[in-house]
Each structure stands twice: as C-alpha cells, then as structure tokens.
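Sanity check record (used in CI):
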Amino acid sequence: MNTKRQRLVCILLLSQWLLACGQKGPLTLPQTPQPNKAPAEQPAPADQPVVSKEQ
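Expected output for Lipoprotein:
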C-alpha cells in the first residue's frame, strides 16, 4: 500500500547518496555499478555554466 512512499524515499536517498559519492569519489561505493553513476554526474555541471553565461 505504501509502494509510492517507498519509491519516493528510495529515490530521495539514492539521489543524496549519488551526490555524496560524486563529491567524495566512487571509492565509497560498496558495489560495482560505478560507471553508471559517473557519466550522470558530468552533464549536470555542464548545464550550470551555460545558464550563467546567458545571464
């Protein structure tokens, strides 16, 4: 019955975990799916400079 809440909580926890791991490094990851998270971190900062240039 609480599957929606569980999904939201999991997504929030994963997002925070990915952000923390992205700053500290993939060494904190106990599992091996590191390459999947690394490319996701690169496009995010690339969008920020584009917006700041327009302003």
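Residues 3-54 form one domain. If this sentence no longer matches the regenerated tokens, the check is flagged for review.
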